[in-house]
Amino acid sequence: MIEFCGVQKTYTTGNASITALQRIDLKVNEGEIFGVIGHSGAGKSTLIRLINLLERPTEGTVKVSGVDLMALSENDLRQFRQHVGMIFQHFNLLGSMTVAEYIAYAMRIVGQKSAQAIDARVDELLELVGLSKHKHKYPRQLSGGEKQRVGIARALSNHPTVLLCDEATSALDPQTTHSILQLLRRINETLKLTIVLITHEMDVIRTVCDRVAVIDGGRIVEEGAVTQVFLHPQHPTTKRFVQEAEGAHDAVVWGDNAAPRGGLYRLTFQRETVHQPLLSRVARSFAVDFSIITGRFGAIKSEPCGQVVVRATGEADQVQGALSQLAQAGVCVEEVSDATVA
Ligand SMILES: Nc1ncnc2c1ncn2[C@@H]1O[C@H](COP(=O)(O)OP(=O)(O)OP(=O)(O)O)[C@@H](O)[C@H]1O
After folding, report:
1. What is the pTM of this model?
2. 24 CA distance to ligand 1 centroid (A)?
3. Which PANTHER family does the record cross-reference, listed alphabetically (predicted)?
4. Class of residue 242 by CB neighbours under 10 A (exposed 0-12, middle 13-18, buried 19+)
5. What average pLDDT does the chain have?
6. Cβ neighbours for 174, distance < 8 A, ≥ 6 positions apart
7. Could you tell which of 10, 13, 46, 198 is best to mutate to test the pocket of ligand 1, judged by most ligand atoms within 8 Å of the CB?
8. Ligand 1-lining residues (CB < 6 angstroms)
9. Segment 111-158, tens digit of pLDDT
10. Lower CB count within 10 Å: N or C terminus of the chain?
11. Which ligand 1 atom minimizes the distance to the CA of 47?
12. Residues 183 and 324 in one domain
Protein backbone atom coordinates (compact mmCIF):
# COMPACT_ATOMS: atom_id res chain seq x y z
CA MET A 1 0.00 0.00 0.00
CA ILE A 2 2.72 2.46 1.07
CA GLU A 3 6.26 1.69 0.05
CA PHE A 4 9.50 3.53 0.83
CA CYS A 5 12.45 2.38 -1.23
CA GLY A 6 15.96 3.67 -0.47
CA VAL A 7 14.58 6.98 0.80
CA GLN A 8 16.91 9.69 1.98
CA LYS A 9 15.91 13.18 3.05
CA THR A 10 18.44 15.96 3.50
CA TYR A 11 17.44 19.47 4.52
CA THR A 12 19.65 22.34 3.44
CA THR A 13 19.49 25.65 5.24
CA GLY A 14 22.10 28.22 4.21
CA ASN A 15 25.44 26.40 4.11
CA ALA A 16 24.37 23.68 6.50
CA SER A 17 22.70 20.45 5.57
CA ILE A 18 21.17 17.82 7.80
CA THR A 19 20.24 14.31 6.80
CA ALA A 20 16.94 13.61 8.55
CA LEU A 21 16.35 10.17 7.00
CA GLN A 22 18.78 7.63 5.61
CA ARG A 23 18.18 4.50 3.51
CA ILE A 24 14.59 3.99 4.55
CA ASP A 25 12.99 0.83 3.16
CA LEU A 26 9.53 0.32 4.53
CA LYS A 27 6.21 -1.26 3.59
CA VAL A 28 2.86 -0.46 5.15
CA ASN A 29 0.15 -2.99 4.31
CA GLU A 30 -3.34 -2.04 3.26
CA GLY A 31 -5.77 -1.86 6.17
CA GLU A 32 -3.21 -1.98 8.97
CA ILE A 33 -2.36 0.51 11.68
CA PHE A 34 1.35 1.13 11.36
CA GLY A 35 3.23 3.04 14.05
CA VAL A 36 6.55 4.85 13.81
CA ILE A 37 8.17 5.53 17.18
CA GLY A 38 11.26 7.60 17.88
CA HIS A 39 12.67 10.27 20.14
CA SER A 40 12.58 13.97 19.31
CA GLY A 41 14.57 14.71 16.15
CA ALA A 42 14.68 11.06 15.04
CA GLY A 43 12.95 11.87 11.75
CA LYS A 44 9.33 10.82 12.42
CA SER A 45 7.63 13.97 11.11
CA THR A 46 9.83 13.99 8.05
CA LEU A 47 8.91 10.37 7.35
CA ILE A 48 5.17 10.84 7.68
CA ARG A 49 5.22 14.06 5.62
CA LEU A 50 6.83 12.16 2.74
CA ILE A 51 3.67 10.06 2.42
CA ASN A 52 1.65 13.01 1.12
CA LEU A 53 4.66 14.78 -0.33
CA LEU A 54 4.53 17.67 2.13
CA GLU A 55 8.26 16.87 1.97
CA ARG A 56 10.00 15.45 -1.08
CA PRO A 57 12.66 12.74 -0.78
CA THR A 58 16.20 13.74 -1.75
CA GLU A 59 16.77 10.17 -2.97
CA GLY A 60 14.64 7.06 -3.41
CA THR A 61 10.95 6.56 -4.08
CA VAL A 62 7.73 6.70 -2.11
CA LYS A 63 4.83 4.80 -3.64
CA VAL A 64 1.22 4.73 -2.50
CA SER A 65 -0.99 2.05 -4.06
CA GLY A 66 1.76 1.46 -6.61
CA VAL A 67 1.92 5.11 -7.69
CA ASP A 68 5.32 6.83 -7.51
CA LEU A 69 4.47 10.17 -5.89
CA MET A 70 7.45 11.97 -7.44
CA ALA A 71 6.10 11.15 -10.90
CA LEU A 72 2.74 12.87 -10.28
CA SER A 73 1.91 16.15 -12.01
CA GLU A 74 0.73 19.05 -9.81
CA ASN A 75 -2.84 18.29 -10.78
CA ASP A 76 -2.54 14.55 -10.07
CA LEU A 77 -0.84 15.32 -6.76
CA ARG A 78 -3.78 17.52 -5.74
CA GLN A 79 -6.16 14.65 -6.59
CA PHE A 80 -3.96 12.16 -4.75
CA ARG A 81 -3.87 14.26 -1.57
CA GLN A 82 -7.65 13.98 -1.30
CA HIS A 83 -7.13 10.29 -0.60
CA VAL A 84 -4.73 10.98 2.27
CA GLY A 85 -6.20 12.54 5.41
CA MET A 86 -3.97 13.95 8.13
CA ILE A 87 -4.43 14.90 11.77
CA PHE A 88 -2.02 16.88 13.93
CA GLN A 89 -0.88 17.24 17.52
CA HIS A 90 -2.28 20.77 17.82
CA PHE A 91 -5.47 20.05 15.86
CA ASN A 92 -5.02 22.95 13.35
CA LEU A 93 -8.67 24.07 13.53
CA LEU A 94 -9.81 27.49 12.32
CA GLY A 95 -11.04 29.61 15.24
CA SER A 96 -13.52 31.58 13.16
CA MET A 97 -15.47 28.54 11.94
CA THR A 98 -17.91 26.28 13.76
CA VAL A 99 -17.32 22.56 13.72
CA ALA A 100 -19.81 22.07 10.86
CA GLU A 101 -18.45 25.01 8.84
CA TYR A 102 -14.89 23.74 9.21
CA ILE A 103 -15.67 20.24 7.93
CA ALA A 104 -17.83 21.66 5.11
CA TYR A 105 -14.96 23.98 4.15
CA ALA A 106 -12.63 20.97 3.75
CA MET A 107 -15.15 19.46 1.35
CA ARG A 108 -15.76 22.65 -0.63
CA ILE A 109 -12.05 23.31 -1.29
CA VAL A 110 -11.79 20.00 -3.13
CA GLY A 111 -14.75 20.87 -5.34
CA GLN A 112 -17.79 19.49 -3.53
CA LYS A 113 -20.63 21.90 -4.40
CA SER A 114 -23.93 20.44 -3.29
CA ALA A 115 -24.89 22.07 0.04
CA GLN A 116 -27.26 19.19 0.74
CA ALA A 117 -24.58 16.52 0.17
CA ILE A 118 -22.11 18.47 2.29
CA ASP A 119 -24.60 18.83 5.11
CA ALA A 120 -25.46 15.13 5.06
CA ARG A 121 -21.76 14.17 5.10
CA VAL A 122 -21.05 16.57 7.98
CA ASP A 123 -23.82 14.94 10.03
CA GLU A 124 -22.54 11.48 9.17
CA LEU A 125 -18.98 12.35 10.19
CA LEU A 126 -20.04 14.02 13.44
CA GLU A 127 -22.05 10.94 14.32
CA LEU A 128 -19.01 8.76 13.56
CA VAL A 129 -16.69 10.74 15.84
CA GLY A 130 -19.34 11.25 18.54
CA LEU A 131 -19.72 15.02 18.18
CA SER A 132 -23.28 15.44 16.84
CA LYS A 133 -24.21 17.68 19.78
CA HIS A 134 -21.28 20.02 19.11
CA LYS A 135 -22.04 20.81 15.47
CA HIS A 136 -22.45 24.56 15.95
CA LYS A 137 -19.68 25.15 18.47
CA TYR A 138 -16.45 27.06 17.86
CA PRO A 139 -13.03 25.53 18.69
CA ARG A 140 -12.68 27.68 21.85
CA GLN A 141 -15.82 25.96 23.19
CA LEU A 142 -14.35 22.46 22.79
CA SER A 143 -12.01 20.34 24.92
CA GLY A 144 -8.74 19.02 23.48
CA GLY A 145 -10.23 15.58 22.84
CA GLU A 146 -13.25 17.12 21.10
CA LYS A 147 -10.96 19.28 18.95
CA GLN A 148 -9.06 16.19 17.85
CA ARG A 149 -12.37 14.50 16.98
CA VAL A 150 -13.16 17.48 14.74
CA GLY A 151 -9.70 17.07 13.17
CA ILE A 152 -10.48 13.40 12.51
CA ALA A 153 -13.90 14.20 11.02
CA ARG A 154 -12.32 16.78 8.75
CA ALA A 155 -9.54 14.39 7.71
CA LEU A 156 -12.15 11.77 6.77
CA SER A 157 -14.43 14.19 4.93
CA ASN A 158 -13.25 13.30 1.42
CA HIS A 159 -13.24 9.51 1.91
CA PRO A 160 -9.47 9.00 2.18
CA THR A 161 -7.88 5.56 1.97
CA VAL A 162 -4.97 6.56 4.22
CA LEU A 163 -5.01 8.51 7.48
CA LEU A 164 -1.74 10.03 8.73
CA CYS A 165 -1.59 10.88 12.43
CA ASP A 166 1.20 13.24 13.45
CA GLU A 167 1.54 12.88 17.26
CA ALA A 168 -2.26 13.07 17.37
CA THR A 169 -2.56 12.31 21.08
CA SER A 170 0.58 14.00 22.43
CA ALA A 171 -1.32 17.06 23.68
CA LEU A 172 -4.02 15.01 25.43
CA ASP A 173 -4.34 13.55 28.92
CA PRO A 174 -4.16 9.73 29.29
CA GLN A 175 -7.92 9.14 29.42
CA THR A 176 -8.62 11.33 26.38
CA THR A 177 -5.68 9.72 24.59
CA HIS A 178 -7.29 6.34 25.22
CA SER A 179 -10.65 7.45 23.81
CA ILE A 180 -9.04 8.95 20.67
CA LEU A 181 -7.01 5.76 20.14
CA GLN A 182 -10.18 3.68 20.47
CA LEU A 183 -11.82 5.93 17.88
CA LEU A 184 -8.88 5.40 15.49
CA ARG A 185 -9.21 1.65 15.96
CA ARG A 186 -12.94 1.78 15.22
CA ILE A 187 -12.34 3.88 12.10
CA ASN A 188 -9.64 1.45 10.94
CA GLU A 189 -11.96 -1.51 11.43
CA THR A 190 -15.18 -0.04 10.03
CA LEU A 191 -13.80 2.04 7.14
CA LYS A 192 -10.90 -0.35 6.34
CA LEU A 193 -8.64 2.67 6.37
CA THR A 194 -4.86 2.30 6.44
CA ILE A 195 -3.48 4.37 9.33
CA VAL A 196 0.12 5.52 9.80
CA LEU A 197 0.85 7.21 13.09
CA ILE A 198 3.97 8.69 14.59
CA THR A 199 4.52 8.94 18.33
CA HIS A 200 7.16 8.95 21.03
CA GLU A 201 5.00 6.82 23.36
CA MET A 202 5.22 3.02 23.29
CA ASP A 203 1.83 2.85 24.99
CA VAL A 204 0.20 4.38 21.90
CA ILE A 205 1.87 1.74 19.75
CA ARG A 206 0.82 -1.07 22.11
CA THR A 207 -2.81 0.07 22.24
CA VAL A 208 -3.59 0.44 18.53
CA CYS A 209 -0.86 -0.62 16.13
CA ASP A 210 -0.46 -3.87 14.23
CA ARG A 211 3.14 -3.25 13.21
CA VAL A 212 5.79 -0.75 14.25
CA ALA A 213 9.07 0.72 13.05
CA VAL A 214 11.51 2.18 15.56
CA ILE A 215 13.45 5.12 14.16
CA ASP A 216 16.68 6.47 15.61
CA GLY A 217 18.99 9.07 14.08
CA GLY A 218 17.10 8.95 10.77
CA ARG A 219 17.35 5.16 10.40
CA ILE A 220 14.92 2.35 11.08
CA VAL A 221 16.61 0.29 13.76
CA GLU A 222 13.86 -2.26 14.36
CA GLU A 223 10.61 -3.19 12.68
CA GLY A 224 7.98 -5.88 13.07
CA ALA A 225 4.66 -6.98 14.56
CA VAL A 226 3.95 -5.02 17.74
CA THR A 227 3.66 -8.22 19.80
CA GLN A 228 7.12 -9.31 18.68
CA VAL A 229 8.79 -5.91 19.08
CA PHE A 230 7.11 -5.19 22.41
CA LEU A 231 7.76 -8.59 23.97
CA HIS A 232 11.20 -9.24 22.44
CA PRO A 233 12.82 -5.88 21.69
CA GLN A 234 16.31 -6.19 20.21
CA HIS A 235 17.73 -2.70 19.70
CA PRO A 236 18.74 -0.63 22.77
CA THR A 237 16.42 2.22 21.67
CA THR A 238 13.46 -0.15 21.47
CA LYS A 239 14.33 -1.65 24.86
CA ARG A 240 14.38 1.81 26.37
CA PHE A 241 10.96 2.65 24.92
CA VAL A 242 9.49 -0.58 26.26
CA GLN A 243 11.03 -0.06 29.70
CA GLU A 244 9.73 3.51 29.82
CA ALA A 245 6.25 2.28 28.93
CA GLU A 246 6.42 -0.37 31.64
CA GLY A 247 7.85 1.99 34.25
CA ALA A 248 10.58 -0.68 34.60
CA HIS A 249 13.36 -0.18 37.11
CA ASP A 250 17.03 -0.75 36.50
CA ALA A 251 18.10 -4.27 35.72
CA VAL A 252 18.52 -6.56 38.72
CA VAL A 253 22.06 -7.86 38.37
CA TRP A 254 23.82 -9.81 41.07
CA GLY A 255 27.58 -9.83 41.59
CA ASP A 256 29.20 -13.30 41.64
CA ASN A 257 29.17 -13.69 45.41
CA ALA A 258 25.68 -12.38 45.96
CA ALA A 259 24.09 -14.33 43.09
CA PRO A 260 21.35 -16.66 44.31
CA ARG A 261 21.58 -20.15 42.83
CA GLY A 262 19.53 -21.10 39.80
CA GLY A 263 19.21 -19.68 36.31
CA LEU A 264 17.09 -16.72 35.28
CA TYR A 265 14.54 -17.30 32.53
CA ARG A 266 12.20 -14.94 30.74
CA LEU A 267 8.88 -16.65 30.04
CA THR A 268 6.48 -15.06 27.56
CA PHE A 269 2.86 -16.13 27.55
CA GLN A 270 0.66 -15.33 24.56
CA ARG A 271 -2.58 -16.64 23.10
CA GLU A 272 -3.90 -19.78 24.87
CA THR A 273 -0.87 -20.06 27.21
CA VAL A 274 -2.07 -16.90 28.99
CA HIS A 275 -5.09 -18.76 30.33
CA GLN A 276 -3.44 -21.98 31.47
CA PRO A 277 -1.87 -22.74 34.91
CA LEU A 278 1.35 -23.84 33.23
CA LEU A 279 3.90 -22.66 35.76
CA SER A 280 2.32 -24.44 38.73
CA ARG A 281 1.69 -27.53 36.60
CA VAL A 282 5.35 -27.95 35.58
CA ALA A 283 6.52 -27.11 39.10
CA ARG A 284 4.40 -30.06 40.33
CA SER A 285 5.57 -32.40 37.56
CA PHE A 286 9.25 -31.66 38.11
CA ALA A 287 11.11 -30.99 41.34
CA VAL A 288 11.57 -27.31 40.47
CA ASP A 289 10.79 -24.10 42.32
CA PHE A 290 10.16 -20.82 40.56
CA SER A 291 10.68 -17.43 42.19
CA ILE A 292 9.12 -14.61 40.20
CA ILE A 293 11.66 -11.79 39.99
CA THR A 294 9.71 -9.36 37.83
CA GLY A 295 6.83 -9.39 35.39
CA ARG A 296 4.36 -7.50 33.25
CA PHE A 297 0.88 -8.36 32.11
CA GLY A 298 -1.60 -6.67 29.85
CA ALA A 299 -2.82 -6.56 26.30
CA ILE A 300 -1.20 -5.69 23.01
CA LYS A 301 -4.04 -4.29 20.93
CA SER A 302 -6.69 -6.91 21.86
CA GLU A 303 -4.34 -9.79 22.58
CA PRO A 304 -3.68 -10.59 26.26
CA CYS A 305 -0.07 -11.42 27.07
CA GLY A 306 2.24 -11.78 30.02
CA GLN A 307 5.96 -11.93 30.59
CA VAL A 308 7.79 -12.91 33.77
CA VAL A 309 11.41 -13.35 34.68
CA VAL A 310 11.74 -16.33 37.04
CA ARG A 311 14.58 -17.94 38.91
CA ALA A 312 14.33 -21.70 38.53
CA THR A 313 15.94 -23.80 41.27
CA GLY A 314 16.32 -27.57 41.26
CA GLU A 315 18.49 -30.32 39.75
CA ALA A 316 19.70 -29.36 36.27
CA ASP A 317 17.80 -32.16 34.50
CA GLN A 318 14.59 -31.27 36.34
CA VAL A 319 14.93 -27.58 35.42
CA GLN A 320 15.58 -28.50 31.79
CA GLY A 321 12.57 -30.84 31.80
CA ALA A 322 10.31 -28.13 33.23
CA LEU A 323 11.52 -25.54 30.72
CA SER A 324 11.09 -27.97 27.80
CA GLN A 325 7.54 -28.69 28.88
CA LEU A 326 6.77 -24.98 29.08
CA ALA A 327 8.21 -24.50 25.59
CA GLN A 328 6.19 -27.44 24.25
CA ALA A 329 3.05 -25.85 25.66
CA GLY A 330 3.78 -22.71 23.62
CA VAL A 331 5.57 -20.52 26.18
CA CYS A 332 8.58 -18.63 24.80
CA VAL A 333 11.49 -19.53 27.12
CA GLU A 334 14.71 -17.50 27.07
CA GLU A 335 17.64 -17.68 29.46
CA VAL A 336 18.66 -14.18 30.56
CA SER A 337 21.47 -12.67 32.58
CA ASP A 338 19.47 -9.98 34.35
CA ALA A 339 15.91 -9.51 35.43
CA THR A 340 14.64 -6.70 33.21
CA VAL A 341 11.47 -7.74 31.47
CA ALA A 342 12.41 -6.17 28.15
N1 LIG B 1 12.35 22.06 7.40
C2 LIG B 1 13.49 21.67 7.97
N3 LIG B 1 14.65 22.31 7.70
C4 LIG B 1 15.82 21.92 8.25
N5 LIG B 1 15.92 20.89 9.12
C6 LIG B 1 14.80 20.21 9.45
C7 LIG B 1 13.53 20.58 8.89
N8 LIG B 1 12.59 19.74 9.40
C9 LIG B 1 13.24 18.90 10.22
N10 LIG B 1 14.56 19.18 10.25
C11 LIG B 1 15.61 18.45 11.00
O12 LIG B 1 15.52 17.08 10.65
C13 LIG B 1 15.69 16.25 11.80
C14 LIG B 1 14.46 15.36 11.96
O15 LIG B 1 13.37 16.19 12.29
P16 LIG B 1 11.87 15.64 12.44
O17 LIG B 1 10.99 16.81 12.72
O18 LIG B 1 11.55 14.79 11.28
O19 LIG B 1 12.04 14.72 13.75
P20 LIG B 1 10.91 14.18 14.74
O21 LIG B 1 11.31 12.80 15.10
O22 LIG B 1 9.56 14.34 14.14
O23 LIG B 1 11.06 15.13 15.99
P24 LIG B 1 9.91 15.71 17.00
O25 LIG B 1 9.31 14.51 17.68
O26 LIG B 1 10.69 16.58 17.93
O27 LIG B 1 8.94 16.46 16.14
C28 LIG B 1 15.93 17.18 12.97
O29 LIG B 1 17.31 17.27 13.19
C30 LIG B 1 15.37 18.51 12.50
O31 LIG B 1 16.07 19.59 13.07
Report:
1. 0.87
2. 16
3. AMINO ACID IMPORT ATP-BINDING PROTEIN, METHIONINE IMPORT ATP-BINDING PROTEIN METN
4. buried
5. 90
6. none
7. 46
8. 11, 13, 18, 20, 38, 40-46, 200
9. 888 889 899 999 999 999 999 999 898 989 988 999 999 999 999 999
10. N
11. 18
12. no
**Mean pLDDT to the nearest integer, 197-213:** 94
Ligand 1 geometric centre to CA of 12 (Å): 12
252 pLDDT band, cuts 50/70/90, is low
Range of the domain at 114: 2-228
In this structure, the answer to whether residues 58 and 174 fall within a common structural domain is yes
Buried b (16+ CB within 10 A) or exposed e, 149-178: bbbbbbbbbbebbbbbbbbbbebbeeebbb
Work out the end-to-end distance of the chain between its first and last CA atoms, rounded to an integer number of angstroms: 31
Task: Give the residue whose CA is nearest to atom 24 of ligand 1.
Answer: 40
Query: Are 192 and 292 in a shared domain?
Result: no
Question: Which residue has its alpha carbon closest to ligand 1 atom 25?
Answer: 40
Query: In the predicted model, is pLDDT for residue 257 greater than 80?
Result: no
Residue 298 lies in a domain: yes
Say whether pLDDT at 249 is over 60.
no
Work out how many domains the chain is built from and give that number: 2
